[in-house]
Amino acid sequence: MLIIIFLMVYWQAKLVRLIEKEEVPRQSYSLEENGPKCLEISWKGIWKSFTVTLDGNVIGTMEGQKELKKGREYPLPDGSLLKVQLVQKLAAVELQVLRDGKPLPGSASDPEQRFKTAYQIIFFIAGLNLVLGLISELLEVEFLLSLGLGIGSVFFGLVFLGLGFWVRTGSLVGLILTIVIFGFDGVLGYYFAIDAGFEPGLGGIFARIILLIPMIQGVGAIRELEKKETLA
Description:
By secondary structure, this protein is α+β, with helices and mostly antiparallel strands.
């Protein structure tokens, strides 16, 4: 429930900023590892007026989400081919930026970035449970206590904090264990809610899936990074 509320507030605020204020998100990438960030991608609102710029020069544009989902390829001066595409994956979307079929460093599908996102999600879950659990216990906030937050949340947060540091070392076992614990916690929460006479909404399941997807992708990312180190 805690995670659902936080995610709903966060994404609602983000959408309002994007739609009303026409914010222009920008992402910069290097074409190769440790290279200068010469490629910039920007858009307005929800994937509108999508622009791809290389060294300050516009090399391509796309007008909307429909066109972006189809993807487009742009030839680069060095003869390589850049492909930009918005890919739907279960409950999430991923902006893929590929050069000759390989993800650019720091892009969403880059194994290093996926690995980083995986342990950041774990730290996020840990921090959220720790902070609100402590606030609930120390200040006796009735609303938070009614959501089941308290010493149990603090313990859960400490466990995930430890798991986060373990996963950050590149532990595949640690990440798989984290996924199992988080998934099992969701199943137990759903069961106890029904047993107590409540009717859990789909929002809780959706929120868990949103957080689980990056962690699951992190499993493949760690394997790819291990394979890369072996071949190096």
